[in-house]
Amino acid sequence: MDRSTFPHEFLWGVSTSAFQIEGATREGGRGTSVWDTFAATPGKVARGEHADVAADHYHRYQEDVALLAELGVDAYRMSFAWPRIQPDGKGAPNAEGLDFYDRLIDAICEAEIAPVGTLYHWDTPQPLEDAGGWLVRDTAERFAEYASIVGERFADRVHMWIPLNEPMVTSIYGYAIGEYAPGKTLLLDAIPTAHHQNVAHGLAVRALRAAGAGSIGTANNHSPVWTTGDSADDRGAASWLDALINRLYADPVLLGTYPPEMEPHLPERYADDLPVISEELDFYGVNYYEPQGVSAPGPGNPLPFELRPVEGYPMTTNDSPVVPHALRELLVSMHERYAAALPPIYITENGCSTADEVADDGHVHDPDRVEFLAGHLRALRFAMDDGVDVRGYFVWSLMDNFEWSKGYAPRFGLVHIDYATQRRTPKDSFDWYRRLVRDGG
């Protein structure tokens, strides 16, 4: 793998999210988020773990920015914590929260790294959830006000903007099956939360543009959907699942329409919001981890599909199949489906968890992660050769972090975190990526 394989202007970066690394959940005027509430509920997070300290980035951000500088990346994708800026999800901003992000963004810029700001990475202020959360349209209006606050403060320094990260995960894992905050189990009745997040995206795009923000895009999780059978029912199930996890978010943003399978489950008058949702974007962010297997539903299944494991591939410690060529398949299919409506693509997340420990020699040897990244970058390059306009790639993640309902066991970082001491140890994958992006490979 060599940097010269990619265009000279190709953007190399890493990603994190506020809730997973910041800690300091009760400091600086920060309010309570749905994830604070969820993690404090017995049985919701593995081993009863929480993010009150996490990687302590709130206090150690200068050390972490120094690691970014050492890594040599062009850009750093971070997220703002909504409850740190608006503790109640509305009203006047919290000055201490804004000041923290001022210090962080200034440090990133001083390191000659481009900040990429995500406004929302799942940490809804708890008072907004108490008022209905993403089940009600008013949350989208509150999000637009929040976007204005952040845009007006940071538009002069943030290089690229992403309103919402992976709304599919909030809708499906948070509202449909309850594995993530806020822990509701509404099944298909959760689909209105997708629409309201799409509205929030469009309103935020308008608010950011009004604040003078530059490049604005999105970051949607996408997975190729593979059937385990070839019957008409299997193919129908695959189409339904593809609509639910992929096209429910991409179609309205890029085409101004919803998949027909979703229309019966959307709120009344949803079509009135499509002009807002489909505001023109400067780029489209793709988060890719794995393909999804599916078949026709079995007896007693209330859903129009049955999830199946993708077999025959190596597995990560987070139980994900490692399938690099599926990234090429995904990108080519998006290129063909959306054609001229698809703006330039950035891979805004791609990474894997491995069994990382500090060895007796003081290093963290993670060859599986190096192989994962190299394989996916090769697949990405092949997709570009097929005509897909990809402008950049962000590894998930800079550092080990709180991995939602699985706690701290899955380790995705290029940097190992000893949670007892907060010691940072760059892994072999860190050195590999540094050689690629800074030294050319």
TrEMBL record:
Any Pfam family: Glyco_hydro_1
EC number(s) from the headed UniProt entry: 3.2.1.21
Positions contributing to substrate binding: 20, 121, 165, 289, 396, 403-404
Name of the featured protein: Beta-glucosidase
GO MF, one example: beta-glucosidase activity
Cellular component, GO annotation: cytosol
Catalytic activity entry: Hydrolysis of terminal, non-reducing beta-D-glucosyl residues with release of beta-D-glucose
The UniProt record lists the keyword Hydrolase: yes
Residues forming coiled coils: none
GO BP terms, alphabetized: cellulose catabolic process
Record-stated family: Belongs to the glycosyl hydrolase 1 family.
Active-site residues per Swiss-Prot or TrEMBL entry: 166 (proton donor), 349 (nucleophile)
PROSITE patterns registered for this protein in UniProt: GLYCOSYL_HYDROL_F1_2 (PS00653)
This protein's UniProt keywords: Carbohydrate metabolism, Cellulose degradation, Glycosidase, Hydrolase, Polysaccharide degradation
Domain of life: Bacteria
Keyword flag Hydrolase: yes
Organism: Amycolatopsis marina
